[in-house]
Queue: 2 jobs
Job 1
Amino acid sequence: MPVDLAASARIIAAAHRDTPGGLLPALHAVQDALGHVPPAAVPGIAEEFNLSRAEVHGVLTYYHHFRSTAPAPRVLQVCRAEACQAMGADALLAHAQQRLGCGLHGRSADGGVTLEAAYCLGLCASSPAVMLNDEVHARMTPERLDELLGTEVPA
Ligand code: FES
């Protein structure tokens, strides 16, 4: 773990130190900037917020949104919330896992895609929905997912 990554995370987090309830926005800011919240950054963030490492770790593990390792160049999120579940999200996720050769929170066999779950992408009326690198796609089918993964240019 490069020391400067943890230092960068601490500097980013410190900007939220004086905000009431600032830990969560701080962790979001770190992940937005670095793609993940490095475990080595936890002690520094804890110090900034006058919390224990365990408290910061508890927040990071409570919210599925936070990653502890850097994601692949492309991140595919398959919505698993209620509306999407009712419209075949489980089958879509199974297809994604088979196609990518990895499980949830894993990387595809070629290392190019990280597979994650999401819990509502705001497209409930057009479910099932997925998000690929911050772009949402509605009414997804296994066939359309194959197209999406096959044609998208890596970031
Ligand atoms: S439940 Fe999937 S987009 Fe809302």
Note: The first strand starts at residue 74 and ends at 79.
Job 2
Amino acid sequence: MEADRSTVAAALLLLVGTTCCLWLLSWWRSSSGGSRSRNRLPPVVDSVPIVGGLLKFVKGPIVMLRQEYQRLGSVFTVNIVTRKITFLIGPDVSSHFYKAQESELSQKEVYQFNVPTFGPGVVFDVDYSVRMEQFRFFTEALKVSRLKTYVDYMVEEAQLFFSKWGDEGEVDLKEELERLIILTASRCLLGSEVRNQLFEDVSNLFHDLDNGMQPISVLFPYLPIPAHRRRDRARKELASVFAKIIGNRKSSGRSETDMLQVFIDSKYRATGRSTTEDEITGLLIAALFAGQHTSSITSTWTGAYLLTYKNYWDSAVEEQRNVMAKVGDKLDYDIVSEMDVLHRCMKEALRLHPPLIMLMRYCHKDFSVTTRDGVEYNIPAGHIVATSPAFANRLPHVFKDPDSFDPERFAPGREEDKAVPFSYTSFGGGRHGCLGETFGYMQVKTVWSILLRNFEMELVSPFPEIDWNAMVVGPKGKVMVRYKRKLLA
Ligand code: HEM
């Protein structure tokens, strides 16, 4: 009995002792460390349990980010159903996001929804080591010597396309540029067979693949809905189209100067094996998905700004005039590369409107970040970590007067994007920075060089709003433009 009583007393003592310790620990965490304590979790967005975060998020991610950034600062967590998404907003807290190794922050888990579109055996369906080899094929396909040829194709395509416009008229610039960008992308990436013989068929198949990527697909990529069924059918048909093209090239020994050829000729270093037809198809689809909407959206925003800010239109025209005074009406990679005014206008349009508004990683290993105010937060393994170029590109402590169109902010002497690494994130950065950045610049600048040299233009619809509901975010509705052919003298 005595022994029982002393056991109970000891247990009680242990319980009280433990409770006191825990209380003291939590008091110490919240007071002694105050805002500077170590291992502090990020604040959590207030919401109705389970679906609250999802509802806030679905209403508009940027609206939510704006509100919560005001309330909670640059690091906070949103509970979305069973997931915890921690946002890191701005260069002070996002450098680990961009620089971390795959074993710490990885893409595969969060970008899985691309797998049924790209197909098996490529990009997010393979281990990191294989993906790195496949990205090496991309790098090879997009190196400067190849870009020089692609720019020649871009010039040809754009000249042919605009030669079909009348002497004057009104067009939906957004639709026109979408059509032109898919033509040039087809020529440079998919090859002359698709561009010259199969363009309609392949475009229709890509259209079905594209429509198969709905917001719902991010959470449930295999949901048996008609859009997903059409996507899967299109993926299969594309595989057979490319199998024929690849077979023909191989049997005839013909070699072309396009991305398709680079993928055909690529070999994995680890095993020495060549790419399969299905992998080649998947990589081409991935390239088109990475580069088509992003470039066409950017060419439309660049135009909308040039047409709204007359002083920049005039400067861009003046730049073309100066270039032509030096080299005539020739356009190639080196000439386009030197167009700084146009470059800065495009870069500024992209700062204000990055088409990829949210980038994500899965956190495998705890890490900590310190905000500008010196607050340190611990981000635990298991969280999804996200950042938003669309929001971070407009932070007033990074970019002066951030909502205004001011391409000169990138000019020598100001270079606001360079003050702190990862300030300008329209192309991501660090370990997974965009591999097609120069291709994108070349494509948009080539198109606008030809327009500036050949037309007077006027925006006749209101300045476009942003279509936040799109997967790749661009201008909403039509962007109507009146044009008149006028050769630059
Ligand atoms: C204006 C045009 C473009 C924009 C705004 C853009 C934007 C981006 C962004 C933000 C990322 C980073 C994604 C992340 O960190 O999760 C990225 C990655 C990538 N982009 Fe682009 N992109 C453009 C054009 C292109 C083009 C034309 C291609 C290829 C033809 C391309 C190929 C890629 C690839 C392969 C990656 C993955 C890199 C990696 O994960 O290591 N992009 N792009």
Note: Confidence is low (pLDDT under 50) at residues 1-37.
